[in-house]
Structure formats: structure tokens, C-alpha cells
Design brief:
Elements (H helix, E strand, L loop, with lengths): L1 H33 L10 H23 L4 H23 L1
Helix pairs in contact: 1-2, 1-3, 2-3
């Protein structure tokens, strides 16, 4: 019983982080394309779309964790890996 609740809570945390990441990428794309804000630097569109794709994959693993189909460690190692990949892409695309 406790292990199932742990998976649900950890999966919910992962889903919330993924949805926030999706929201940020969509909102940044919106500000780049449809407003007159002048940015000092901008991420290319492909970086925003790639981050969006990484967050969708992370969302999928969070849902699978809530269902109990994968383990906590596999789900969170995947999440950490995707966040590191997204961060590296962000850094390298601007540099």
C-alpha cells in the first residue's frame, strides 16, 4: 500500500514538473513570435520544440510511474537525464 502511494506521489511530482516545462516552452515561443518584446538573446525555435519533446517524454514516464509500470529509479533517472540534455542544448544553442 505504501509503495503504491509513493509511486503515485512521485509520478505526480514528475507530471507537474513536465507540465510546467511544457508551459514555459509554449509561453516562450508565444512571446518570441507574437509579441513586440525585444530580447537580448533568443533560443532558436528548434531548441524550444526539442525541449517540448523532451518534456512530453518526461510526462509519459511520469504517467507510467503513477500506473506502476516502471520503477522509481528508472523514471527519475530518465527525468534527470532529460533535464540535463535539455539544459545542455539550451546552453550550447546560445553560446
Amino acid at each position: 500500500m505504501l509503495k503504491k502511494n509513493t509511486n503515485v506521489v512521485l509520478g505526480l511530482i514528475q507530471i507537474v514538473l513536465s507540465v510546467y516545462w511544457i508551459y514555459e516552452m509554449i509561453f516562450l515561443y508565444y512571446k518570441y513570435q507574437y509579441t513586440d518584446i525585444l530580447f537580448a538573446f533568443m533560443y532558436p525555435n528548434w531548441v524550444l520544440f526539442l525541449n517540448f519533446l523532451l518534456s512530453i517524454i518526461n510526462l509519459y514516464f511520469g504517467i507510467e510511474l503513477m500506473k506502476g509500470k516502471i520503477s522509481n529509479t528508472r523514471s527519475y533517472l530518465t527525468m534527470i537525464t532529460l533535464i540535463i540534455i535539455g539544459g545542455l542544448i539550451n546552453i550550447l544553442s546560445v553560446a
